[in-house]
Design brief:
There is one protein chain. The strands form three sheets. Strands 15-14-11-12-13-16 form a six-stranded mixed sheet. By secondary structure, the protein is an alpha/beta fold. The protein is elongated and about 85 Å long. Helices cover about 40% and strands about 20% of the residues. The protein has two domains: about 170 residues, 2-Layer Sandwich (VC0802-like); about 210 residues, HUPs (Rossmann fold, 3-Layer(aba) Sandwich). Bound molecules: adenosine-5'-triphosphate and magnesium ion. The site of adenosine-5'-triphosphate has 20 residues, from helix 7, strand 12 and helix 14. Adenosine-5'-triphosphate binds next to helix 7, strand 12 and helix 14.
């Protein structure tokens, strides 16, 4: 498999570190699918069976189908292609082409050839390589025609430093930056549509995730928490494993209901969530918080409400959906596979305690006064103390 780096290819002197991060991530994920070797040159990572094992038997020992399916979801990859590797010898290249492209070309009507010659000492230049391979393929598959403008299949021959590689059309990768290359952040994850998408977007930019979920049993059912496990399971297929902290939130919500004015319930609850999230994030070595908030979507997502939740944490709060419409978020949720889980009906802790007339433009002093009867420090400490950690795996 040939893997082309995304944006990280542009990162100057840091490029080595990004490549290394991607290689480590891939090695970890592919471990269960065979013994692999990674070699990197010219913005391309070659992933194949371990060195010395290049026989057909070695290929039988690695699960290339499963590996390709996994690679599709790894951040930091712009494109990838399964390829045949041969010696850099024209006779071998022609033989390999006639053999390897049977599945791709049998059903195609038209094709074209492209050659990339990274090794300039190779005796044929790119047009000559294309002409030779094209001729051989037309002989082998007499039903084919060449179409350089809109071919059914593009056959690519890459002559690289040690080997030549042949592949059909490459597949688009997940893009973004390699997992962990940008640091770690804690995502506040509900069972809704937005927060899993926010988590995915920040993982795409190279953040390693920790999940924080507030549960309020018996007001919320274990099924609501199960939903969160399943949602993060989908995100983890892209981001890699995600530790999830489930925080007991019932006592706090009951105290808010007992002691605070109803129209401030949601705001105070969100401030409590942020405080606890910050404590847990710092404990887990995270440098930022992530939420699924979007400007104006609900009462607690006005500018004033967001400012009042930001006021209680000194960590940066990333809200990647802030400028997105619901429709855009839904279409991304469908694409990444979280939508169908999110729309399952189990209520989360917010819906259970929703006030009838929430404040939409809270003044800071008013929120602070409404919150004053709570013993904030001990409630937060108690909740953080009670958090349970579960590891969400990427399989
Ligand atoms: P979502 O679809 O992500 O639930 P939402 O539009 O329903 O978002 P709110 O319920 O107001 O919005 O929540 C705003 C954000 O607060 C969520 O995106 C999420 O980051 C966080 N959040 C809400 N409820 C919880 C919870 N029970 N546990 C952890 N985080 C939560
Ligand atoms: Mg919600």
């Amino acid at each position: 498999m040939l893997i082309k780096y995304g944006e990280m290819a542009l990162k100057g002197l840091n490029r080595r570190a990004f490549e290394e991060q991607l290689r480590k991530d891939l090695a970890g994920r592919l471990r269960t699918l065979g013994e692999w070797e990674f070699t990197s040159a010219q913005s391309t990572l070659r992933v194949g069976p371990l060195r010395g094992k290049t026989s057909a038997a070695a290929y039988a020992e690695v699960d290339m189908d499963a590996a390709a399916e996994m690679v599709r979801r790894v951040f930091g990859i712009a494109a990838y292609a399964r390829a045949a590797q041969t010696e850099k010898d024209m006779a071998r290249i022609l033989e390999t082409a006639a053999d390897y492209f049977v599945p791709h070309l049998s059903a195609a009507r038209t094709f074209k050839c492209e050659a990339k010659r990274a090794d300039k000492s190779f005796p044929l230049n790119s047009p000559q390589i294309c002409a030779a391979v094209g001729e051989r393929l037309l002989e082998t598959f007499p039903h084919l025609r060449v179409d350089v403008l809109q071919p059914d299949v593009t056959v690519t021959i890459e002559v690289r430093d040690r080997y030549a590689f042949l592949h059909a059309d490459q597949c688009k990768g997940a893009g973004g930056m390699p997992a962990g290359s940008a640091g770690s952040a804690a995502v506040l994850i509900s069972g809704g549509i937005d927060s899993p998408v926010a988590a995915w977007m920040m993982a795409k930019r190279g953040l390693r995730l920790t999940g924080i979920h507030f549960a309020s049993p018996p007001y919320t059912s274990p099924l609501a928490e199960g939903k969160v496990h399943n949602l993060l399971g989908e995100v983890a297929k892209y981001s890699g494993r995600i530790p999830l902290l489930v925080v007991p939130f019932t006592h706090i919500q009951e105290e808010i209901r007992r002691l605070c004015p109803e129209d401030y319930f949601t705001l105070i609850m969100r401030r409590m969530m942020m405080r606890i999230a910050e404590m847990l994030a710092r404990r887990e070595g995270c440098q930022a918080l992530i939420t699924g908030e979007s400007m104006g979507q609900v009462a607690s997502q006005t500018m004033e409400a967001l400012a009042s939740t930001d006021a209680v944490t000194s960590l940066p709060v990333f809200r990647p959906l802030i400028g997105s419409d619901k429709e855009e978020v839904v279409s991304l949720a469908r694409k990444i596979g979280t939508f169908d889980i999110s729309i399952q009906p189990y209520e989360d802790c917010c819906t259970v305690f929703t006030p009838r007339h929430p404040r939409t433009r809270p003044r800071r002093s008013a929120v602070e006064a409404a919150e004053a009867p709570l013993d904030v420090a001990s409630l937060c400490a108690e909740a953080a103390e009670g958090a349970k950690k579960i590891i969400i795996r990427n399989t």
